[in-house]
C-alpha cells in the first residue's frame, strides 16, 4: 500500500509542477492588462544581445540603440533625412582653418537626476577619451586627431583638432555626466543602475540576456515622452519575438524575415512597416588581391583576374530570383552600386550595358573567352586546371545561407564548380581583408553622401602586407575609377558630381569585381491596438528601430493619443500628416523634398560620410 | 578490526577481507585526486582548443572596426598575445588559479562575471529538470521492471525510447508550435512583472514550463531504462528469494531490497550523464532563449568570443567533474561494498 | 564420407548459431519491426538516385513556390525555396545514415581498442587510459563537438570526426568491463598456460567474446550519432552543400525560415519524424539483439 | 503428526516450448525434531524440492501433489497465510550466503527483519536488539558483528548469520540447502557442528541438502538419496551408507574415500573397464621440478604487503604425483601459478629439468609446452565459443607443433579417453557433461606432450560419480606416459586416492612434506592433524 501512496505522491508532484505554471497564465494576462492601464510601457523585442550599456564600450546595434535613448549627443541626425541638427548643442561655428570648433550648449539643460548639464560634461567626456585608452573602446576613432577639448564657460565647448575633421557634426559619442562618471574607478566596467542620462529615457535596470528597462526622463530638453516606460526585451530567436508580438507580450519588433512579416499580415491588431534600407548586398570576385603598394596577397584563384570570366559570372547571377526566393519579394532588384534609396546618386545600367540574367549568354561568353569544358562538365582555366572556386558565406547570415546554393547552382550550369564555405563573421572579415577568397558575400550600409562606399573600391583602400591597416572591398584597383574618384572629391558642382559618381558605377559594373545582388528591406511590426504609431527616419519609408537618433522611441504614441509627431529641425514637433502604419508599402515619391534638404547639408556630409559606413555589412549588421 | 572468533578458529579460518582504518579519507582523496587530474586535462584542453581555433584574436576583438596597427599592437601587448605560447599558458594558468577567466571580447566584462550571471538560470533549469527526470525515470523504471512485459512496461518503455530518439531542439520547436500562446516563448521572466517575490517566482515557473518539459522528456528515458534493467538484474538475486522466504510482501521485497540495490548503478548514471543533460540544455536554451550558460556558450561560439568560450568550457566541464566526484563519494556512502574494496 | 575440415565445421556451426540467433531475434516483434524499418530506409536511401531526380535538390531548378502546403505535385509540400520536402527527406536519409554509420564505426573502433587495451594490460596502461576515458566521458560532448567542428572545415567529414571523437568513451567503458569479465574466466588462464601471448589471448578469446556486445552497442550508438548529427547541423555546423541535405540541416532551414510561425508543419515534421523513426528502429534492433546475445535478459 | 509430509510431489518447469520434470513423484515425511539428509548430484531436483516447501519456485514451475506443512497444504494456501507461515514454521538456510544476504543492509537489520515482520506488535527497539544479540550469540558471533555488512564477513561468518536469521522466528523446521558447500574443511566442520547442536537443543526439524554424503551422514539421522527427480533410497544414515541398495548411492558413497583406509589407496572409485594401474615404483634421481626458497608477495593498494608464498622448497620427480594440500588462502594456487610462470616470484627460483625457469617470452613459451595446467572448473576453463577440436588444437597452434594437427588432436582426445575422438571434435562445451569437459581440458594439455601436469582442484566442481573417473584417468596417464603431476587440492581424500607424496601448505609455507601413507596416517604438524580431524566421517556423527 505504501508504494501506491508514494506513486500517487510522485504523480501529484509532477502534475503540480506541470499544471501550476499552466494555471498561472489565467491570472498573468490580467496582470499584464492592469499594468498597461497604469503605466504606458513600450516593450520592444530585440534579437541581438546587449554587449554592454557602458557608453564608452557598447558597439552593438542593440546597445547603441538603447544608449541613444538614454544619452543625448551634441548633434543628432534629423528625422527627415539624416541631416545633422543640434541636440545638446544649439549652435556651432568653426574657425577659418577648420581646426577649432566652438559648440554653444542650450540653456537650462538638466541631467535626469536634476543636476545641471553644462559644457563641463561633454568636456569631461571627451577629455576622458583623450586620456584613457579604455574610454576610447567604442568611439575612439572620432577623437584620434583631436588636440584639446575645453569648456570655456557653462555653455561653450571648444574642440581643437590636429587636422580638419569632417565628422565633427556627427560625433556619435554619448555625453556622460561628469558628477557621476568622474567617481567611477574602472571606466570600462559595467555601469551602475539606474544610469543618470540626458536622453528621452533613463536606463533603470539591466538583466543580462533578458531585458533592459528605461523610464521616461522628465528632464529631457525636448520634453517628456508620452510613453512612461521603455523595455527592450531580448529574444534569442526571432520566431519567439514574433509569437510574443502576436500574444501581446511585446509591442514592437524589427528585423523580421519574409515569412514572419507575411504571417503578421492577417493579424488585425498588428501594423507592419516595410522600410527601405541603406544597404546593398554583393558578391565579391577576387580580381587578384594586392596590398596598397601593389604586392599580391591572398590566395584568390588567378583565373579570376580575367575580366571576361568575372563578367560571365555576373551574367549568371539572377537578382530577380534572389529577390523573390531569398527575400520573399521584400527587396529591390540589383541596379547600381549606390542603393536606390539615395535616388540622386543611384545609377541603373542603360539597356546596352545591362546584364540580363542568361546562362546561355554566360556560357557563350566563356566559350568565346576560351574556357573549354572538362570531362565532368567543369570548365578548365587557361592552365588547364578545372575552375573550382570557393564561395565564402557568413555562417549566421540567412541571406548567404539561402543565396549560396542558388549561386552554386547557376555557376554549375556554366561549368564553374563552387564550394560553399560558411565561416563566422570574423573569419570572413579576416579572410577577405587578406585577399584569401575567390568569391565572397559582402554588403555595406551606404549614406546620403556616397563618398565612403565609393572610396572602398580605390587602390588606396587596399591593406598592408599583413592584411591590416585598411578595409578593402573587392580589391579593385582601376586607374579610370581612381581618376574619377579624385575628380568627384574636388567637384563642388552637384550635378557634375552626380554625373561622375554615375560614371564610377558604370566602371564598377563593367569591371565586375563585385556583383550587386539586391537591396533588401527592413521589416518591422508593432501592436496597432497599443500604439498609434512611431516617427520614422527618414520620415518617408524609414525605420522605427535602429535609427540614427531617438525619434522612433521618443515619439512613440500610445493608441488614442495620436497623432504621431513629426520632429522638425528647429527642435519643434508637429502633427504627422500621414499614418505611419503600412505607409511604407507605397513607394515614396517625395524625392524632391529629400533632394532639397540633402543639397542643403551636402558639404558637411561630403567629408562626414566616413562615420556612417565605417563597418562592413556583416558586422554593420551586428553593430552600429 | 579485532577478530572475534575463538582462538582455534581464528587461527584456522579464512581471513575476512581486510578493512583498513582511514579508508574513507583515502577513498575521498583518491576520488578528489582523480577529479583534479581530469580538471587539469580540461584546463589544458581548454587552452589548446581555443588557441588553435583559427582566426586572428585581435581582429576578432576589433570586429572590423578600423584600428590602426599601433592600436592592435597595443591590444596584443595588453592581452599578452605576443608572448610565446608556453608563457601564455602559464599566464592563463596563473589567472585561472585566481578565478580570473579573462575578459570577454564581445561583452568587455570579466568572463567570470558573465558566467556567474548565467549560472543561476542554468542551475535552475538543469536542476529542476534533472530532479523531475530522475523521479519520473526511477518511478517508471521500477514499475516497468517489476511488471515486466505488462502493458505498462511496453507502453512506458516505448514512449521513453521514442522521446529519447527525438532531437531535443525539434521537440522544443514542436512544443513551441503546439502550445502557442499558452506559455511564454522566451526568456525567464517578463520585464513588467511585479517585483515581489511571489509574482516573480510564479512568472519564472511559468517561463520554465516549456524548457523543463523539453529537457525532462529527452533525459528521463535514460534513467527509466537503466533503472529498469538494473532492477531486472537484481530481480534474479538470491537475497530476494531470502526476503520472500522471510514472508515479506511483494512490494516490501521490492522497496526494501530490490530497489535500493538497483538504485546504486542508476545513481552513478545520473551523474555520469550530466554532460548529456548539459548538451540538452544547450539546445533547449537556444530554442527557448533561456538566459543560461548553454545559450552563452552557443552565442560565444557564434561570435568566436574565445575567452568566453574557454570560460564556459572550463566551467561546464569542471561542474560535471565536480558532480562526478560528489557522485563517487555519495556512492560510497550508499554502497557499503565500495567502502571495503 | 570424409570428415569435414575443422574450418568447415566451424563455419557450419556458426551458420547454425546464426540461424538459432535469428530465430530468437525473429521471436521479438519490436526487433522485427525495427529491422524492417531499417531495411526499408536503407533501401530508400541507397536507391534514392534511381527513384528520384537529384536535380530536384538544386535550388535553381526548384519548381515549387515558397513553403507550399502538400499537394499532388509535392506530397509533403515545399521548402523555403520551393524544393520538394519529400525529395529532401529522401536524400537527407543518405547523409544522416552515412554520418550515423561512419561516426559510430569510428567511435566504436576507438572505444573497443581503448577498452580492450585498458582491460588487458594492467596497472599503468589501464589507469592512464581509464583516466582519459573518464575525462572524455564527463566532458559535455556537445560543447566539445561544436568546438571541434568550428576548428575544422565544414563538411560531412568534420561532423563524423566530431561525433566519433566525442562519443567513444561509453563504448570504451563497456568493452573494458566486458573484457575484464572475460579475462577473469579460467579459459584465459588456460590459454596463457598453453603459452598464448597477448595477441593470441586478445584475438582468439577476448575479441570474439566482446564483439557481440560491441555489435549491440554499435546498433544503439548509430541512433545517438544521428541525433548528434542533426543537432550539429541544426546549430549550423553541418555540410553547406545544398546537394547533400541532411535532416538536421533541413530542420535548420525550417527553423531559420520560421516554419513554426508560418505553420508549415510539412516542413517541420518530416525530418524530425524521420530522425525519430530511424533512431527508434536502431534502438529496437539493438535491444532485440541485446536480448538474443545476453541470455540473462531473455528469460521471463 | 509429521512436521512435513510431502505426498507424490511433482514439479515441472515449463517455458519456451520445453518442459522439464525436475521432481517426479516424491514422497517424504519428517517428524518434529528429526533430521533428514537429502543427497544427490547437481540437477537431481533436491533444491527444487526444498524450495517447493515454502512455495518459492519461480512462476514457470507447475507443482503437483501435496506438501503438508504442519498438516496444512502449502500449495493451496492463501498468500497472506503463506507469508505468515514462511519463516515462522519453516525457515531456509540458503546456499551461497554471499548472495543470499542483501549486500547493502547491515546483517543485524536482516536478522531482525522477519522478527519485526511476524510480530503481532512491533517489538521495542531495545528488545529487538537483545533478541538479535541473543541469536548472534547462539551462532557464536559477537554482537558487534551485527553492524557489519555481508561483504565484511568471512564465508563461515556469513553462513552463521544465515543460520541466526533462520532461527529468528523460532521455526519448527529448518531447511539447509548446501550450507557448507563453499566452505573450507575446517570451517565446514564448525558450521555443521553448530547447526547440529542448535537443531538438537531447540528441537527443530532439519532437512539438510548436500551432494556430500559424508557431510549428511555426520549431521543427520536419516538419509534420502535423489536421482533424476526421484527418491531412490531412504533410510537410517548408517544403513544407507553401509549397505547402499541403489547403485547411485553406492557411487556417491564411494566418491568420498576414507583417509587411512588402504582400500581406497591408489583406488579412486571408477566403473571404467580400463581398470586401475598398479602402484608405481618409488621415484628416484634428479627431480623434474624443484622450487628453491620460492617467495611471492603482493602489494595491495594501501601498500599493505601480503605474503602468499613464504619460502617454499618443493620437488616433483618424473612420473610422480604430488598432492599440495591446504585451505583456500594458504597460497597453494599462487604456488601453482608461479610454477607455471604465470606469476613472477619475489624471491627464490623454479628449476625445471635442471634449468631455471626462463624469464623471456620465448623461453617461457617453450617451457609451457612441458608443463601444462588443468583447472578446477572445466565449464569455465573452456571457451564456450570454441569447439572441442579448437580447444584441443589451441596449444598446438600457439606452439606451431609440426605434423598433422588433426591427428594430434585425435590422439590427445583418445589419450584423455574421449572415444571416438571424431565424434567429440565438433561439439561445443555446453554439449558435454562435466566429466567430458574436464577430459577435453586434459586432452588440450596432453596434445602438447607435456612432462608435468599442474592440476588445480581438478575434481572439486565435478559430481561425485565423475570424480573417481577423472582421478583414475590421471593414474592411468601417469602409468602409460610417465606423466608427473602436481595436484592442488583441499581434499585429503583425493591425496589419499592418487598421490605418492603430499605437501601440506599453511599460510604460505609447507608445514609437512612426505609420502602420503606417512603424512596422512601419522601427521606430525598440528595443522595437518586439525585438517584430518575436520573430515566428516561416514557413519559416525562428528562430535565437537
UniProtKB/TrEMBL annotation, chain A:
It comes from the Bacteria. Residues 84-457 form the Solute-binding protein family domain. Residues 562-587 are annotated as: Disordered. PROSITE patterns: SBP_BACTERIAL_5 (PS01040), TAT (PS51318). GO terms for molecular function: peptide transmembrane transporter activity. This is Solute-binding protein family 5 domain-containing protein. InterPro entries: Peptide/Ni-bd, SBP_5, SBP_5_CS, SBP_5_dom, TAT_signal. Residues 1-33 form the signal peptide. It comes from Actinophytocola xanthii. Keywords: Membrane, Signal, Transmembrane, Transmembrane helix, Transport. One of its GO terms (cellular component) is ATP-binding cassette (ABC) transporter complex.
From TrEMBL, chain B:
Residues 119-331 form the ABC transmembrane type-1 domain. GO terms for cellular component: plasma membrane. Its main location: membrane. InterPro entries: BPD_transp_1_N, MetI-like, MetI-like_sf. The chain crosses the membrane at residues 32-53, 119-140, 161-184, 204-223, 262-288, 308-331. The keyword Transmembrane helix applies. The keyword Metal-binding does not apply. It is found in: Cell membrane. One of its GO terms (biological process) is transmembrane transport. It is a multi-pass membrane protein. Keywords: Cell membrane, Membrane, Transmembrane, Transmembrane helix, Transport. Belongs to the binding-protein-dependent transport system permease family. PANTHER family: OLIGOPEPTIDE TRANSPORT SYSTEM PERMEASE PROTEIN. This is ABC transporter permease. It comes from Actinophytocola xanthii.
Automatic annotation (TrEMBL), chain C:
InterPro entries: BP-dependent_transpt_permease, MetI-like, MetI-like_sf, OppC_N. Signal peptide: none annotated. It is found in: Cell membrane. Keywords: Cell membrane, Membrane, Transmembrane, Transmembrane helix, Transport. It comes from the Bacteria. GO terms for cellular component: plasma membrane. Pfam families: BPD_transp_1 (PF00528), OppC_N (PF12911). Belongs to the binding-protein-dependent transport system permease family. This is ABC transporter permease.
From TrEMBL, chain D:
Residues 4-253, 289-532 form the ABC transporter domain. The keyword Cytoplasm does not apply. Residues 268-287 are annotated as: Disordered. GO terms for molecular function: ATP binding; ATP hydrolysis activity. GO terms for biological process: peptide transport; transmembrane transport. InterPro entries: AAA+_ATPase, ABC_transp_ATP-bind, ABC_transporter-like_ATP-bd, ABC_transporter-like_CS, Oligopep_ABC_C, P-loop_NTPase. Pfam families: ABC_tran (PF00005), oligo_HPY (PF08352). Keywords: ATP-binding, Nucleotide-binding, Transport. Belongs to the ABC transporter superfamily. This is Peptide ABC transporter ATP-binding protein. It comes from Actinophytocola xanthii.
Amino acid at each position: 500500500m505504501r508504494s501506491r501512496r508514494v506513486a500517487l505522491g510522485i504523480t501529484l508532484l509532477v502534475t503540480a509542477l506541470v499544471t501550476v505554471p499552466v494555471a498561472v497564465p489565467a491570472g498573468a494576462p490580467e496582470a499584464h492588462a492592469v499594468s498597461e492601464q497604469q503605466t504606458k510601457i513600450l516593450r520592444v523585442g530585440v534579437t541581438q544581445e546587449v554587449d554592454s550599456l557602458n557608453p564608452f564600450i557598447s558597439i552593438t546595434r542593440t546597445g547603441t540603440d538603447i544608449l541613444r535613448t538614454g544619452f543625448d549627443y551634441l548633434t543628432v541626425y534629423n528625422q527627415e533625412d539624416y541631416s545633422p541638427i543640434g541636440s545638446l548643442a544649439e549652435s556651432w561655428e568653426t574657425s577659418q582653418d577648420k581646426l577649432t570648433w566652438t559648440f554653444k550648449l542650450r540653456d537650462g539643460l538638466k541631467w535626469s537626476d536634476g543636476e545641471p548639464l553644462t559644457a563641463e560634461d561633454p568636456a569631461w567626456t571627451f577629455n576622458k577619451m583623450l586620456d584613457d585608452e579604455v574610454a576610447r573602446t567604442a568611439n575612439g576613432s572620432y577623437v584620434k586627431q583631436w588636440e584639446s577639448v575645453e569648456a570655456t564657460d557653462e555653455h561653450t565647448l571648444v574642440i581643437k583638432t590636429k587636422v580638419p575633421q569632417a565628422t565633427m557634426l556627427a560625433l556619435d559619442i554619448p555625453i556622460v555626466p561628469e558628477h557621476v562618471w568622474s567617481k567611477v574607478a574602472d571606466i570600462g566596467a559595467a555601469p551602475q543602475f539606474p544610469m543618470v542620462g540626458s536622453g528621452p529615457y533613463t536606463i533603470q535596470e539591466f538583466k543580462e540576456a533578458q531585458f533592459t528597462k528605461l523610464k521616461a526622463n522628465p528632464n529631457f530638453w525636448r520634453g517628456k515622452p508620452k510613453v512612461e516606460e521603455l523595455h527592450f526585451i531580448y529574444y534569442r530567436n526571432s520566431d519567439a519575438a514574433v509569437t510574443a508580438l502576436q500574444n501581446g507580450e511585446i509591442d514592437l519588433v524589427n528585423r523580421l524575415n519574409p515569412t514572419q512579416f507575411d504571417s503578421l499580415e492577417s493579424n488585425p491588431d498588428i501594423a507592419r512597416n516595410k522600410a527601405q534600407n541603406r544597404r546593398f548586398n554583393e558578391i565579391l570576385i577576387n580580381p587578384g588581391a594586392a596590398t596598397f603598394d601593389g604586392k599580391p596577397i591572398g590566395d584568390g584563384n588567378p583565373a579570376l583576374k580575367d575580366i571576361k570570366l568575372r563578367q560571365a559570372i555576373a551574367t549568371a547571377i539572377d537578382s530577380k530570383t534572389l529577390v523573390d526566393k531569398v527575400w520573399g519579394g521584400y527587396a529591390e532588384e540589383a541596379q547600381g552600386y549606390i542603393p536606390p534609396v539615395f535616388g540622386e546618386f543611384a545609377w541603373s545600367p542603360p539597356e546596352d550595358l545591362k546584364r540580363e540574367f542568361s546562362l546561355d549568354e554566360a556560357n557563350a561568353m566563356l566559350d568565346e573567352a576560351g574556357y573549354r569544358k572538362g570531362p565532368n562538365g567543369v570548365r578548365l582555366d587557361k592552365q588547364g586546371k578545372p575552375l573550382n572556386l570557393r564561395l565564402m558565406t557568413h555562417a549566421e547570415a540567412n541571406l548567404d545561407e539561402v543565396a549560396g546554393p542558388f549561386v552554386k547552382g547557376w555557376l554549375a550550369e556554366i561549368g564553374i564548380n563552387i564550394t560553399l564555405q560558411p565561416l563566422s563573421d570574423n573569419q570572413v572579415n579576416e579572410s577577405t581583408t587578406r585577399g584569401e577568397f575567390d568569391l565572397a558575400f559582402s554588403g555595406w550600409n551606404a549614406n546620403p553622401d556616397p563618398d565612403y562606399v565609393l572610396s572602398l573600391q580605390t587602390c588606396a583602400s587596399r591593406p598592408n602586407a599583413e592584411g591590416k591597416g585598411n578595409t578593402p572591398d573587392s580589391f579593385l584597383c582601376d586607374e579610370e575609377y581612381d581618376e574619377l574618384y579624385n575628380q568627384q572629391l574636388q567637384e563642388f558642382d552637384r550635378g557634375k558630381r552626380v554625373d561622375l559618381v554615375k560614371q564610377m558605377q558604370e566602371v564598377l559594373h563593367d569591371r565586375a569585381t563585385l556583383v550587386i545582388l539586391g537591396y533588401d528591406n527592413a521589416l518591422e511590426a508593432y501592436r496597432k491596438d497599443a500604439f498609434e504609431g512611431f516617427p520614422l527616419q527618414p520620415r518617408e519609408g524609414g525605420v522605427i528601430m535602429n535609427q540614427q537618433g531617438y525619434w522612433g522611441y521618443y515619439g512613440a504614441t500610445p493608441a488614442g493619443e495620436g497623432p504621431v509627431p513629426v520632429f522638425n529641425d528647429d527642435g519643434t514637433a508637429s502633427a504627422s500628416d500621414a499614418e505611419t502604419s503600412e505607409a511604407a508599402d507605397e513607394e515614396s515619391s517625395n524625392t524632391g523634398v529629400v533632394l532639397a534638404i540633402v543639397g542643403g547639408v551636402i558639404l558637411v556630409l561630403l567629408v562626414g560620410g566616413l562615420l556612417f559606413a565605417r563597418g562592413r555589412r556583416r558586422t554593420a549588421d551586428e553593430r552600429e | 578490526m579485532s577478530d572475534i572468533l575463538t582462538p582455534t578458529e581464528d587461527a584456522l579460518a579464512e581471513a575476512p577481507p581486510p578493512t583498513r582504518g582511514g579508508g574513507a579519507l583515502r577513498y575521498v582523496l583518491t576520488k578528489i585526486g582523480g577529479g583534479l587530474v581530469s580538471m587539469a586535462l580540461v584546463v589544458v584542453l581548454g587552452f589548446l582548443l581555443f588557441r588553435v581555433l583559427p582566426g586572428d584574436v585581435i581582429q576578432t576583438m576589433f570586429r572590423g572596426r578600423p584600428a590602426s596597427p599601433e592600436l592592435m599592437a597595443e591590444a596584443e601587448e595588453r592581452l599578452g598575445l605576443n608572448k610565446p605560447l608556453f608563457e601564455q599558458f602559464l599566464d592563463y594558468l596563473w589567472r585561472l588559479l585566481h578565478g580570473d577567466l579573462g575578459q570577454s571580447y564581445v561583452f568587455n566584462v570579466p568572463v567570470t562575471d558573465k558566467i556567474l550571471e548565467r549560472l543561476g538560470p542554468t542551475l535552475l533549469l538543469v536542476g529542476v529538470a534533472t530532479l523531475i527526470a530522475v523521479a519520473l525515470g526511477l518511478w517508471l523504471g521500477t514499475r516497468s521492471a517489476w511488471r515486466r512485459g505488462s502493458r505498462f512496461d511496453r507502453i512506458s518503455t516505448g514512449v521513453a525510447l521514442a522521446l529519447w530518439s527525438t532531437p531535443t531542439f525539434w521537440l522544443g520547436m514542436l512544443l513551441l508550435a503546439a502550445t502557442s500562446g499558452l506559455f511564454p516563448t522566451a526568456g525567464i521572466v517578463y520585464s513588467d512583472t511585479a517585483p515581489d517575490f511571489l509574482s516573480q517566482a510564479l512568472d519564472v515557473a511559468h517561463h520554465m514550463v516549456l524548457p523543463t518539459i523539453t529537457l525532462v522528456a529527452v533525459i528521463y528515458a535514460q534513467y527509466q531504462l537503466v533503472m529498469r534493467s538494473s532492477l531486472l538484474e537484481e530481480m534474479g538475486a538470491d537475497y530476494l528469494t531470502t526476503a520472500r522466504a522471510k514472508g515479506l510482501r511483494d512490494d516490501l521485497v521490492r522497496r526494501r531490497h530490490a530497489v535500493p540495490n538497483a538504485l546504486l548503478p542508476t545513481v552513478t548514471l545520473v551523474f555520469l550523464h550530466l554532460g548529456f543533460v548539459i548538451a540538452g540544455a544547450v539546445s533547449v536554451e537556444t530554442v527557448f532563449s533561456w538566459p543560461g550558460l548553454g545559450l552563452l556558450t552557443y552565442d560565444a561560439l557564434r561570435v568566436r568570443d574565445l575567452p568566453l568560450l574557454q570560460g564556459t568550457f572550463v566551467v561546464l566541464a569542471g561542474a560535471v567533474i565536480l558532480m562526478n566526484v560528489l557522485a563517487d563519494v555519495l556512492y560510497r556512502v550508499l554502497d557499503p561494498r565500495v567502502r571495503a574494496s | 564420407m570424409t570428415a569435414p575440415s575443422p574450418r568447415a565445421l566451424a563455419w557450419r556451426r556458426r551458420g547454425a548459431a546464426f540461424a538459432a540467433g535469428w530465430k530468437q531475434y525473429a521471436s521479438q516483434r519490436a526487433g522485427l519491426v525495427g529491422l524492417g524499418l531499417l531495411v526499408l530506409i536503407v533501401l530508400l536511401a541507397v536507391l534514392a538516385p534511381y527513384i528520384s531526380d537529384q536535380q530536384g535538390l538544386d535550388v535553381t531548378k526548384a519548381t515549387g513556390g515558397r513553403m507550399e502546403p502538400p499537394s499532388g505535385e509535392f506530397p509533403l509540400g515545399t521548402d523555403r525555396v520551393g524544393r520538394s520536402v519529400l525529395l529532401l527527406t529522401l536524400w537527407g536519409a543518405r547523409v544522416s545514415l552515412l554520418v550515423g554509420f561512419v561516426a559510430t564505426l569510428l567511435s566504436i573502433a576507438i572505444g573497443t581498442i581503448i577498452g580492450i587495451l585498458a582491460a588487458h594490460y594492467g596497472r599503468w596502461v589501464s589507469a592512464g587510459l581509464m583516466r582519459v576515458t573518464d575525462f572524455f566521458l564527463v566532458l559535455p560532448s556537445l560543447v566539445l563537438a561544436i568546438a571541434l567542428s568550428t576548428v575544422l572545415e565544414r563538411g560531412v567529414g568534420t561532423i563524423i570526426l566530431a561525433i566519433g571523437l566525442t562519443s567513444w568513451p561509453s563504448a570504451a567503458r563497456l568493452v573494458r568491463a566486458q573484457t575484464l569479465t572475460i579475462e577473469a574466466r579460467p579459459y584465459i588462464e588456460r590459454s596463457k598456460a598453453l603459452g598464448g601471448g597477448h595477441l593470441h589471448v586478445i584475438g582468439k578469446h577476448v575479441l570474439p567474446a566482446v564483439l557481440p556486445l560491441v555489435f549491440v552497442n554499435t546498433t544503439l550508438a548509430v541512433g545517438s550519432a544521428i541525433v548528434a548529427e542533426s543537432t550539429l547541423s541544426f546549430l549550423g555546423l553541418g555540410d553547406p552543400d545544398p546537394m547533400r541535405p541532411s535532416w538536421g540541416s533541413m530542420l535548420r532551414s525550417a527553423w531559420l525560415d520560421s516554419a513554426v510561425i508560418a505553420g508549415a508543419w510539412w516542413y517541420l515534421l518530416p525530418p524530425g519524424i524521420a530522425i525519430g523513426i530511424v533512431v527508434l528502429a536502431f534502438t529496437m534492433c539493438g535491444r532485440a539483439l541485446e536480448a538474443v546475445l545476453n541470455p540473462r535478459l531473455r528469460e521471463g | 503428526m509429521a512436521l512435513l509430509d510431502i505426498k507424490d510431489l511433482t514439479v515441472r518447469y515449463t517455458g519456451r516450448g520445453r518442459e522439464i520434470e525436475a521432481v517426479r513423484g516424491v514422497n517424504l515425511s519428517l517428524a518434529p525434531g528429526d533430521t533428514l539428509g537429502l543427497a544427490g548430484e547437481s540437477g537431481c531436483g533436491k533444491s527444487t524440492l526444498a524450495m517447493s516447501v515454502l512455495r518459492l519456485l519461480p512462476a514457470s514451475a507447475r507443482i503437483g501433489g501435496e506438501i503438508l506443512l504442519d498438516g496444512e497444504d502449502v500449495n493451496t494456501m492463501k498468500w497472506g497465510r503463506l507469508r505468515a507461515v514462511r519463516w515462522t514454521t519453516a525457515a531456509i538456510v540458503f546456499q551461497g550466503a554471499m548472495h543470499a544476504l542483501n549486500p547493502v543492509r547491515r546483517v543485524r537489520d536482516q536478522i531482525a527483519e522477519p522478527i519485526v515482520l511476524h510480530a503481532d506488535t512491533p517489538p521495542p527497539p531495545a528488545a529487538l536488539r537483545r533478541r538479535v544479540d541473543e541469536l548472534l550469540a547462539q551462532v557464536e558471533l559477537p554482537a558487534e558483528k551485527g553492524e557489519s555488512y555481508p561483504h565484511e564477513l568471512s564465508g563461515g561468518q556469513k553462513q552463521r548469520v544465515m543460520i541466526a536469521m533462520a532461527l529468528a522466528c523460532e521455526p519448527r523446521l529448518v531447511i539447509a540447502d548446501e550450507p557448507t558447500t563453499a566452505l573450507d574443511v575446517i570451517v565446514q566442520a564448525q558450521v555443521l557442528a553448530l547447526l547440529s547442536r542448535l537443531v538438537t537443543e531447540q528441537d527443530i526439524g532439519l532437512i539438510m541438502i548436500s551432494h556430500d554424503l559424508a557431510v549428511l551422514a555426520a549431521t543427520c539421522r536419516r538419509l534420502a538419496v535423489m536421482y533424476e527427480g526421484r527418491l531412490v533410497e531412504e533410510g537410517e544414515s548408517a544403513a544407507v551408507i553401509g549397505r547402499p541398495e541403489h547403485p547411485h548411492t553406492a557411487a556417491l558413497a564411494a566418491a568420498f574415500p576414507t583417509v587411512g583406509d588402504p582400500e581406497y589407496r591408489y583406488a579412486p572409485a571408477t566403473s571404467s573397464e580400463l581398470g586401475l594401474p598398479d602402484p608405481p615404483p618409488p621415484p628416484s634421481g634428479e627431480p623434474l621440478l624443484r622450487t628453491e626458497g620460492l617467495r611471492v608477495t603482493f602489494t595491495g593498494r594501501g601498500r599493505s604487503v601480503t605474503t602468499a608464498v613464504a619460502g617454499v622448497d618443493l620437488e616433483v620427480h618424473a612420473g610422480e604425483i604430488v598432492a599440495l594440500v591446504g585451505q583456500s588462502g594458504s597460497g597453494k594456487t599462487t604456488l601453482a601459478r608461479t610454477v607455471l610462470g604465470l606469476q613472477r616470484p619475489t624471491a627464490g627460483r623454479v628449476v625445471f629439468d635442471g634449468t631455471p625457469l626462463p624469464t623471456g617470452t620465448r623461453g617461457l613459451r617453450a617451457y609451457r609446452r612441458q608443463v601444462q595446467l588443468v583447472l578446477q572448473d572445466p565449464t569455465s576453463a573452456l571457451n564456450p565459443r570454441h569447439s572441442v577440436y579448437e580447444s584441443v588444437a589451441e596449444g598446438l597452434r600457439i606452439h606451431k607443433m609440426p605434423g598433422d594437427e588433426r591427428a594430434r588432436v585425435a590422439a590427445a582426445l583418445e589419450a584423455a579417453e574421449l572415444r571416438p575422438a571424431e565424434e567429440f571434435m565438433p561439439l561445443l562445451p555446453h554439449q558435454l557433461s562435466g566429466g567430458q569437459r574436464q577430459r577435453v581440458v586434459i586432452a588440450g594439455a596432453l596434445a602438447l606432450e607435456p612432462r608435468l601436469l599442474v592440476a588445480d582442484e581438478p575434481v572439486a566442481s565435478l559430481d561425485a560419480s565423475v570424480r573417481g573417473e577423472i582421478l583414475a584417468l590421471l593414474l592411468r596417464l601417469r602409468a602409460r606416459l610417465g606423466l608427473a603431476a602436481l595436484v592442488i587440492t583441499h581434499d585429503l581424500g583425493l591425496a589419499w586416492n592418487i598421490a605418492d607424496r603430499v605437501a601440506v601448505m599453511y599460510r604460505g609455507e609447507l608445514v609437512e612434506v612426505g609420502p602420503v601413507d606417512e603424512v596422512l596416517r601419522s601427521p606430525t604438524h598440528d595443522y595437518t592433524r586439525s585438517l584430518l580431524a575436520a573430515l566428516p566421517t561416514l557413519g559416525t556423527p562428528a562430535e565437537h
